[in-house]
Amino acid sequence: MGELDDRLLALVDSVIDVDEERLPLLTRGEARAAVELLQLLASRSGEGAFAARHLAGNLTRRLPSDV
Q1: Cα–Cα distance between 27 and 29 in angstroms, integer?
Q2: Does residue 54 contact residue 5 with C-beta atoms inside 8 Å?
Q3: How far apart are CA 1 and CA 20, in angstroms?
Q4: Tens of pLDDT along the chain (67 residues)?
């Protein structure tokens, strides 16, 4: 894991540790598109891939499942 991954993971994980209000800033479609873009970044082996995988997982767990 590189320096960028460490920095991004710290930003992502700091939200979990703080009881911070979540804001409704995205539509469901925008959130799904963001997750797909993160998964694309995560599929590569460069800087940020690990953090992208981690953030994509966090967001995917919070998205409602399509029925």
Answers
A1: 5
A2: no
A3: 27
A4: 678 778 878 877 776 555 667 667 788 888 889 889 989 988 988 888 888 888 888 888 888 886 5
SS3 content of the chain, % helix, strand, coil (to 5): 65, 0, 35
Q: Kindly report the number of other CB atoms within 10 A of residue 17's CB atom.
A: 7
Q: What tokens does 51 get? A: 């953090």
Q: What is the b/e burial string over 23-62, where b = at least 16 CB atoms within 10 angstroms of the residue's CB?
A: eeeeeeeebeeebeebeebbeeeebbbbbbbbbbeebeee
